[in-house]
């Protein structure tokens, strides 16, 4: 017992040396099969990465692009219901691990916002199951210069403007060397389809028949109707001048016969 009590300080030093050596060996690697945490903000600390980080992605020589446009401190707006390519690129050096975390806050569900488009990118189960947010991470911790995935979201029905999502990005080069930045993207409500203002076909009125009269109607009849039973006798026109001449001749003859 006396022997072990005297050797205890040496054993502590030995254990400390072994632990330090193991940390140095582990320090050459990121987590081999994906991010170990999906905590909001800087997830690398929660995943057990030592140190305090090396700064922002820009300071480490990394950029995040969506549809070829670099994310900055200004919110990037995207159209809802359309796939958008998201990339992490190393401009000066490669990286081993990463985490893309998509958080819509209390407004919407982002668990299905992201999908993988390559073999070295996978959906982060820690994000979707534990944190109930969207997430993409690496599948293996080999050096890589670029990764890409796809994001797509629908604006929740109770939002009538922009659906804002926070994108936390962590890039790990070694176990104790990592970089972090946070961005904002907004999904715009797609314009509704406007109904056609004009009918697809305009109804036509049939042209009047060629036999139809084009004269305006009149309020008076064209002929006076007659009745067969109550019609008045018609008078034959008489030449008044011939009638008087005949009458005078008749009277002269009549009186001449009376008075021979």
* Count of β-strands: 11
Task: Tell me the number of helical segments per DSSP (H or I, 4 or more residues long).
Answer: 5
Largest beta-sheet characterization: 6 strands, mixed
Radius of gyration: 52 Å
How helical, in percent, are the residues? 10-25%
Task: Report strand %.
Answer: 25-35%
Strand order of the largest sheet: 3-11-10-5-8-7
Order of helices and strands: HHHEEEEEEEHEEEEH
Shape: rod-shaped
Terminal Cα span: 206 Å
**Spans where pLDDT lies below 50 across 5 or more residues:** 19-29, 195-204, 206-215, 224-241
Structural class: alpha+beta
Concise structural overview:
This protein is an alpha+beta fold and 260 residues long. It is 23% helix and 26% strand. The chain is rod-shaped.
Give keywords.
single chain, 23% helix
Descriptive overview:
There is one protein chain. The relative contact order is 0.16. This protein has 260 residues and is an alpha+beta fold. About 19% of the residues have low confidence. It has five helices and eleven strands. Helices cover 23% and strands 26% of the residues.
Write the layout of secondary structure elements.
Elements: H1 2-26, H2 43-46, H3 57-60, E1 62-66, E2 69-70, E3 76-79, E4 84-90, E5 97-103, E6 114-116, E7 121-123, H4 125-131, E8 134-138, E9 146-151, E10 162-174, E11 177-188, H5 240-258
Parallel strand pairs: 3-11
Antiparallel strand pairs: 1-2, 1-4, 4-9, 5-8, 5-10, 6-9, 7-8, 10-11
